[in-house]
Specification:
The complex is a heterodimer of chains A (276) and B (253).
Chain A: H1 2-7, H2 11-36, H3 42-60, H4 64-85, H5 90-112, H6 119-124, H7 132-151, H8 153-161, H9 163-168, H10 173-195, H11 200-212, H12 218-243, H13 247-275
Helix pairs in contact in A: 2-7, 2-10, 2-11, 2-12, 3-4, 3-5, 3-10, 3-11, 4-5, 4-10, 7-10, 10-11, 11-12, 11-13, 12-13
Chain B: E1 8-17, E2 20-30, E3 35-39, H1 46-53, E4 61-66, E5 69-70, E6 80-83, H2 97-102, H3 106-109, H4 117-129, H5 145-158, E7 163-167, H6 175-192, E8 195-199, H7 203-206, E9 212-217, E10 219-224, H8 226-231, H9 234-252
Parallel strand pairs in B: 3-8, 3-9, 6-7, 7-8
Antiparallel strand pairs in B: 1-2, 1-4, 4-5, 9-10
Helix pairs in contact in B: 4-5
The chains are: A mainly alpha (276), B alpha/beta (253).
Chain lengths: 276, 253
């Protein structure tokens, strides 16, 4: 433990903690809207699109998170168009966009000869190698997402609860729908260095699933989801260091453990209530 | 024909889904304080008409005017309240009654603006008017169908609407709750001059509350007072059609 306290003084660990906390709190904050709109798996798709962006960054010599953000956000606009264009085939359209992303990523990575070098770091996260600039980008993206969610809290709630009702109330539903997906895409890009392309969707939805077990109102559910997300990132990082295992996977496994504990607590509370 | 004294004016509205003509040449006018019940058998186009009025669908022909303004140019949407069918609700959604009712102020307050003390007062009034204040902190997922629809009414009232459109709000709700909902609506019409358009199959329960009936079956077959309906012998015919429709609905279920 003394060794762990010692490592906390190290710059790389401080950056990892900051990045983990920022991403851990931001992912479920936007993830809640995705879960409530039954778009839980869309984060996976943004991960695929980001992969194409990261590989394009390697190929063109641009900072990979910037190109990842461009690809994911462009994908978000295309997805929203496809979702509203032919609703009956929307899942098929999403699948085509997502596989286009991963296929482009493989081709770009091959062309840039980075297929084996940096790939694992982006696929499964590399939180301990987060640089000062990475942290600045992650922090900027997280603050932008959280500030937008806070400013448009009542509009996003009305949209999530009843899209038709929001439209009748005169809200710009199309703009807000695009904005939710754009914020989700940006969040996924911010989380790439922490948990990686493959696992990023987990951090968007698993803390939300845990929070839903508590049976709170909207604000309570959102607050607990953010606490669970941030807590999972910190505990996961700590566990990965102490057990010498992969941090990205450990963070997601920690969030799953939190979900299981929350679910069990709900069952026990229900049993106690029925007996009382 | 346009009048600023009308809350709603439909002028020869037609609408079709693909090749299926759902509404044909429908014209009617609703004034402030009127309580209109929109009757008709299954598939008559009642819900479609409500969705056209609230701007969720666009007519193929005809003109809709809200408070004297063509719907395409109408911007004052908080003046319109909408209570959807119970089937369009969200089971398991993590929100309290208070949070859902407060969302009814969103359009009124405007984008990016926080709710103020005045909004809070209106939300409290809406909770009281719909009789849901005692369980304002409960999760909506824990409410009965009737309680949920009263919450949806409170959400609509929180926006201080002048025209309230309700799409079969009491379908599947017990008779006592339905009666309570209708008394609340009648009170709002009389006290605040809100115009109400209420879609229903149940014309007998609605009769003591509604000032006029509109009978729709793709075309508007009748629109006027209950007395006019009695005189023309329409009421007997309506009863037969509605009974047949109810029978058909039960058979389907």
């Amino acid at each position: 433990m003394a060794e762990f306290i010692d490592v906390l003084q190290q710059g790389y660990m401080q950056r990892a903690i900051m990045a983990g906390l920022l991403v851990g709190v931001t992912c479920p904050a936007i993830g809640l809207y995705l879960v409530l709109r039954r778009l839980s798996l869309i984060g996976d798709g943004f991960g695929h699109l980001s992969f194409a962006g990261v590989a394009a960054g390697w190929l063109w010599g641009i900072y990979p998170l910037f190109t990842a953000a461009a690809f994911a956000m462009l994908g978000a606009i295309v997805i929203e168009k496809l979702r509203t264009w032919r609703r009956e085939y929307s899942d098929l359209a999403l699948a085509i966009v997502f596989y286009s992303g991963i296929a482009l990523g493989v081709v770009f990575a091959g062309l840039s000869r980075h297929l084996n070098v940096n790939l694992l770091g982006y696929l499964f996260g590399s939180i301990l190698t987060v640089s000062d600039f990475d942290l600045l980008v992650i922090g900027g993206a997280s603050i932008l997402v959280l500030a937008t969610l806070s400013l448009l809290e009542k509009e996003f709630f009305a949209l999530a609860y009843d899209e038709d009702g929001a439209r009748v109330a005169g809200l710009p539903v199309t703009v807000l729908n695009h904005l939710v997906l754009l914020l989700a895409a940006l969040t996924v890009v911010a989380a790439l260095r922490v948990v990686g392309i493959v696992l990023v969707a987990g951090l968007l939805v698993i803390p939300v699933a845990a929070s839903l077990q508590l049976g709170r109102g909207f604000r309570g559910t959102r607050t607990w989801a953010m606490v669970f997300g941030g807590g999972s990132a910190l505990l996961g990082l700590m566990a990965s260091y102490l057990l010498d295992i992969a941090p990205g996977g450990t963070i997601i496994l920690t969030s799953i453990l939190v979900f299981i504990v929350a679910g069990a607590a709900r069952e026990i509370a229900g049993l106690v209530q029925r007996r009382a | 024909m346009k009048s600023s004294h009308t809350a709603l004016q439909l002028d020869r509205i037609s609408f079709q889904f693909g090749s299926n003509l759902v509404l044909e040449d429908v014209s009617l006018e609703v004034r402030p304080g009127e309580f209109i019940v929109l009757l008709g058998p299954n598939g008559a186009g009642k819900s479609t008409l409500i969705r056209l009025i609230v701007g969720l669908l666009r007519p193929n022909a005809g003109e809709i005017n809200l408070f004297g303004t063509p719907i395409g140019r109408f911007k004052d949407w908080p003046r319109i309240g909408y209570v959807p069918q119970l089937t369009s609700t969200r089971p398991g959604f993590p929100a309290t009654v208070d949070e859902v009712v407060a969302s009814g102020r969103t359009g009124k307050r405007g984008l990016l603006r926080r709710l103020t003390h005045v909004d809070r007062v209106r939300i409290d009034s809406a909770l009281d008017a719909a009789g849901v204040a005692p369980f304002r902190d409960r999760l909506i997922s824990n409410l009965s169908g009737g309680q949920h629809q009263r919450v949806m009414l409170a959400r609509a009232l929180a926006g201080e609407p002048e025209l309230l459109l309700l799409d079969e709000p009491a379908a599947g709700v017990d008779a006592a709750t339905k009666g309570e909902l209708l008394r609340i609506l009648k009170g709002l019409c009389e006290a605040q001059g809100i115009a109400v358009v209420y879609v229903s199959h149940d014309w007998e329960t609605l009769r003591p509350f509604a000032t006029k009936a509109a009978w729709l079956d793709r075309r508007l077959l009748f629109f006027g007072s209950w007395e006019d309906m009695d005189e023309g012998g329409n009421i007997r015919q309506l009863g037969e059609i509605m009974a047949a429709s109810e029978h058909f609905r039960h058979e389907e279920q």
